[in-house]
Protein: Crinkler (CRN) family protein
Organism: Phytophthora rubi
Amino acid sequence: MMLKQCEVVGELPKKGKFLKIFEWTDVDCGKLKNVKAIGDIVHFIGSQFYVRKEVLCVLENFRKIYQSEFDSGEMVYKQFVLMGSPGTGKSCILALLCFFIAIKVKRPVLWLRQDKRGKVGGTTTRLFYQGKYYEWKDPEGTMYRSIYDALNNTVSDTNASWCVLDGLDKRDIKDRKWFDKFTLLATSGQFPPNSVPVHFFRLCLVPYWKQSDLEEFGRKHMQIEESDVDARLFVSAGSLGKFLDDDAEATVKPAIDRIKKPEDAEILLTKYRLSGNMQNDHVRMRGVYDRNNADHYVDVGEWIGCVTSKLVLHHLAAMMKPNFFEELMRIARGVNDDRLEDITFEAYFHSLVYHRRSMCVEYCKYDNVNRETVNNWENNLHADVGSIEWKELSVVE
């Protein structure tokens, strides 16, 4: 009866490169995949999907858990949770998985997506069933729960259908008593790993975007000008969503304003710690020590928290003492992120000056005129090197 009364109904696509996600390799990294057929149905993924190494590692972890179920029908009693900062691609990966399961594996997929972005947001429940998709506006989640119960009553094993949640955090799920009502979940960082039943949950991090991937995507695929790329990186850093948002600073500013004391900022460098109800995911990026090691994505001990936005670091330079930036530089070196180390060093210098710490600055004049492959720089520049040292900075009024 519910399906007959549904006003939004259509045919699921029967083919597409997005159905070969588990065949993607390193050769596909940096390439765009046509996902227009998905975008036309869900309206948030766009027409192209950019493949990066991090996506392959996430898919590898998913495949390791559920491959036996796809091959033999043997049920796997695990809940797969995609975590990470906003704008890193969790929802897009989830969409790819939903279409793959519904079309290739031919299993019913019940999918609720909650978008909290004001007027452009909303909550939608979709059902992929027998080659068709059905869609309902579902602000309270009542349709999701009704269909879940119906599937439970009509299918011999509930796990034969895949129930998927997108955009809900721990509080949302707890309030609705849905901890056992999903197989896949894409959530924000407001979902502390130490609060979940580890025997059933498998947490998988989607790391922040590297500068090289953002630049590649922006210049080659979005035709963004060089100067505009730099301006967007200044605000967004590791979030593709904010990188593409012309008004990203307006999104980041409320999160910056909530950092009122050093204790708030220190949380940004933790793996998953929260401070009360403070939402800090828009300024805290999360990554793994080795992006090429898929095992790190599901090992909380290999996760890191950091600040990749230069705009945010400028705000923190006056508040935080130099040791905060020393720790962030250590993290940057640990994940081999040269850009993060560079912008953190700049903020570190500002913090030293602001807090009137002693320092020594060594300088030299670079020869940018007659450079050669082998340059006798010791003799050429000997007269143009030196250092400035002071024990305590005076206050300039």
In short: The two ends are 76 Å apart (CA to CA).
